[in-house]
Structure formats: structure tokens, C-alpha cells
Recover the amino acids of this structure.
């Protein structure tokens, strides 16, 4: 198990990286590399790859804050999957698998892998509810950067963030709903991790008592 986990993480990271590179090369050939790099999906997946490679390179040794950093990345990828399914993908695509292997990897496999990897890995300290707030930092920075860039270039990565397709009132109301969803999911992920951690501790203590 000690050897299998890092190998599995590395294989997943390489698969995600391959999907990102394929999409980036295709976008670059079309002169759309900057747009490709502006998608929340690609950024959150890239963070996950970097996190895995850093973790594998250090042999599992990391700082205390690293647990919450992994949680932030897992949370961002979970939101990637949810937002893509609810706001971006056509309704008839949700139950289909003929969407291209890069789409499956980035929108379906990566969110599940990131969440499971984070939930099933032992912690070095008890989680704090404060992380729910700072987990919102990346989404807020992304949102702000998207609107600033969109105002300058007229291009937005997602239609629901584009005021030119509807109106600012519609965009802001949709964004408010999305932000509420971000907080709700972050809270759920935080509580789920806490419950799993609580359940694992007694089980571990019982195992040690038997020995």
C-alpha cells in the first residue's frame, strides 16, 4: 500500500497533465492558448498535478499547512465538476461518455480522484473551520481576474460570467448563487473530512488495543 499510493497518484497526475497538454497544444495551434489557460477547469487541474508531483517528490513529507492546501485543491476540483455539470455542459451530456478523453479526465476523473485522495489520507493535525473561508480565495481571485480581463478584451471563459450575453444583473445574481454553492460545498467537504477523521481515530485505537 505504501508503494501503490504514490504510484497511483503519479499515474493520475501524468494522465491529467497529458489531457492538459493536448488541450493546450490544440488551443495554441488555433491561437487560443491564453484563453485555454484562463479556464477554471484547467487551472484547478494544473494545481492538482503540481501538488501530486510535489508530494511524490518529497516522499510524503510536508508542512502542517499542506493538508489544508490539498483540501483547497480538492475543493476547487469538486466545484469544477459541479459547475461544469450544472452550468457549462449541455443537459444531454451529463450521462454520456462520448465527450472525448480529455473532457472525461479533467471534468470527471480529476474531481473524484482529488476528493478521494484528500479524504483517505491521514492528517497531521485536526482541521479548522477557518479553512472554509480561505478556500474561497482562489475562486474569488479567479472571478475578479476574469471580469477584469473580460472588460479589457471582451472575452469571458464561461457564458454565465459574460454580461454581454445577458446583463450585469443576471451575471451578478448567477455569481451570487455560485458563491453560495462554493461555501456550501466547502462546508460539506470540511465536515465530511472531519467525520471521516473522527471515525478513523477510534478504529485505529481499537486496532492498537488488539495488538
Amino acid at each position: 500500500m505504501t508503494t501503490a499510493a504514490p504510484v497511483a497518484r503519479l499515474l493520475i497526475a501524468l494522465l491529467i497533465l497529458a489531457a492538459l497538454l493536448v488541450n493546450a497544444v490544440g488551443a495554441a495551434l488555433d491561437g487560443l492558448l491564453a484563453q485555454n489557460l484562463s479556464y477554471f477547469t484547467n487551472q484547478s487541474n494544473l494545481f492538482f498535478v503540481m501538488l501530486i508531483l510535489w508530494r511524490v517528490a518529497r516522499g510524503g513529507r510536508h508542512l502542517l499547512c499542506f493538508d489544508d492546501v490539498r483540501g483547497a485543491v480538492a475543493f476547487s476540483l469538486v466545484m469544477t465538476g459541479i459547475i461544469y455539470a450544472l452550468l457549462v455542459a449541455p443537459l444531454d451530456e451529463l450521462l454520456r461518455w462520448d465527450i472525448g478523453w480529455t473532457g472525461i479526465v479533467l471534468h470527471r476523473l480529476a474531481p473524484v480522484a482529488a476528493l478521494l485522495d484528500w479524504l483517505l489520507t491521514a492528517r497531521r493535525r485536526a482541521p479548522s473551520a477557518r479553512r472554509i473561508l480561505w478556500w474561497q480565495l482562489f475562486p474569488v481571485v479567479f472571478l475578479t481576474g476574469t471580469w477584469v480581463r473580460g472588460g479589457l478584451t471582451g472575452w469571458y471563459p464561461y457564458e454565465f460570467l459574460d454580461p454581454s450575453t445577458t446583463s450585469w444583473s443576471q451575471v451578478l445574481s448567477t455569481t451570487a448563487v455560485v458563491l453560495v454553492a462554493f461555501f456550501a460545498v466547502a462546508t460539506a467537504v470540511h465536515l465530511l473530512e472531519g467525520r471521516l477523521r473522527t471515525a478513523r481515530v477510534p478504529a485505529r485505537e481499537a486496532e492498537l488495543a488488539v495488538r
Observations:
- Residues 4-210 form one domain.
- The radius of gyration is 19 Å.
- Helices lie at 4-29, 33-37, 40-57, 66-88, 101-119, 131-134, 137-153, 168-210.
- The chain has one domain: 4-210.
